[in-house]
Amino acid sequence: MCILGGQKGFKMSKEDIFYLVGKKVLPDVFIGVIEAKRLLKIGKALTVNEAVKMANISRSAFYKYRDWVFPFTEGARGKIITLSLILEDAPGILSKILNTIAKANGNVITINQHVPIHGIAYVTLSIDTNNIEDGANTLIQAIRNSEGVQKIEILAQE
Fold it and tell me: What does the pLDDT look like over 16-28, one tens digit per residue?
C-alpha cells in the first residue's frame, strides 16, 4: 500500500487530498518511485541516476512524483513504543526479552541499560512495532509474562 497526495512535513492546503491505494492497482511508475527512494535511503544507489535505472523509471517521473508518493508505513502513526523495564539481574533475561520482540516481528531501535544495582537492572527499549501483526499490546503482555521481568511501563508511543 502507499499514500498518494503528500509527504511527511508537507503543509497541506484545503485542495490536498490523500488516497490510500493498494499495490495491485497502483501504476508501475509509482512503485518505481517508491523503490528508487528506498534505494537512495539505504545507500544501494548513490545518485538519483543510479536509483531510477535500478527502479526502471525515468528521472522526470522520479522528480515529478517523489514528493507525492510514499509507502504507507512512512505515514503510519503509532508504530514506535518506548518501554521502561525493571529486570532481575540474571544471565539471559534481557536476551529472552529481545528474542520475544524478534519473534513478534518487532524491531529494537534503541537499548539503554544501566549498571545493575542490588540485583535489579533498569532497561529502556524503543521498539518499532510496525510489522507486529498481533499488535503492541500483545507484545507488551508477552514481555510482562517473561521470566525475570519485575515491572514494565510504557514511556512513550509515537
Answer: 666 778 888 889 9
Q: Cell numbers of 48, please?
A: 538519483
Strand blocks (E) in 49-145: 69-71, 80-88, 107-113, 120-128
Query: 56: alpha, beta or left, given left = phi > 0 and alpha = psi -120 to 50?
Result: left
Residue 70 and residue 9 share a domain: yes
**CATH code assigned at 151:** 3.30.70.260
Read off the pLDDT of residues 33-78 as tens digits, 9 standing for 90 and up: 999 998 988 889 999 999 999 999 999 999 998 888 877 654 444 5
Structural domain of 110? 80-157
CA atoms 102, 105, 111, 113: torsion sign: negative
Number of domains in the chain: 2
In terms of domains, do 113 and 44 share one? Answer: no
Report the distance separating Cα 132 and Cα 128, nearest Å.
9
How many Cβ atoms are within 10 Å of 26's Cβ, its own excluded? 15
pTM comes to 0.53
Cβ burial 64-76 (10 Å sphere, 16+ → b, else e) = ebbebbbeeeebe
